[in-house]
Write a structure and sequence with these properties.
33% strand; alpha+beta; six-stranded antiparallel sheet; globular; 5 helices
């Protein structure tokens, strides 16, 4: 009997503890992945939208901009956490990470998970979407990523300060089998 109890304890202690929700994941993120993070109390005060059912958080704080955290689940229950922080003024810029837990630690897997369309491809999408005829040398609009609250596709949009209407350039679909994102091919 004692050996069975010891075996159960050993198995439980050897298996990594997985966070139950996107909120749990967000609260354990190292600060290097989201500059606006502070203590746990600070982090919860930044949450503007909390949709645990869909694995989504939207954050706002004292900085100009916002942040989003989204959770994807792949085959076999693998979890992928997307984190995007947008800083604005006068133009918006983003940092984007994709993270997995390995051996109880967060590991940056952005390069192996996410291959965004090139700026040239996005500019082509922009010209198609807006019927824009910009010539070489003119300002290229900043492109931003919007993590999904519902569904699994990331939207690539033009910075709203650059256009007079929201412009979705393309969607990047999540493939649960490969744990990668693929471009769905520009504006429709």
């Amino acid at each position: 009997m004692v050996s069975r109890i010891l075996l159960c304890c050993a198995l439980l202690s050897a298996s990594p503890v997985l966070a139950a929700t996107v909120l749990d994941d967000y609260l354990t993120l190292p600060q290097k992945y989201l500059a606006a993070l502070g203590t746990t109390a600070d982090r919860t005060s930044l949450i503007r939208v909390q949709d645990l059912r869909n694995g989504y958080l939207e954050l706002e704080g004292a900085w100009e901009g916002n942040a989003q955290v989204a959770l994807w689940t792949g085959r076999g229950g693998q979890r992928l956490l997307g984190v995007v922080q947008t800083d604005c003024g006068p133009v918006c810029h983003q940092t984007l990470y994709f993270l997995k837990r390995q051996n109880g630690r967060w590991v940056d897997v952005t390069r192996t998970t996410f291959s965004p369309p090139s700026s040239a491809v996005l500019l082509g999408y922009f010209r198609t979407a807006s019927r824009n005829t910009r010539r070489p040398g003119e300002d290229t609009p900043p492109f931003l990523y919007t993590l999904p609250r519902v569904g699994t596709a990331i939207e690539v949009v033009v910075d709203p300060t650059f256009t007079d209407h929201p412009t979705v350039l393309t969607r990047l679909r999540f493939d649960a089998a490969t744990m990668r994102f693929t471009d769905l091919g520009g504006p429709k």
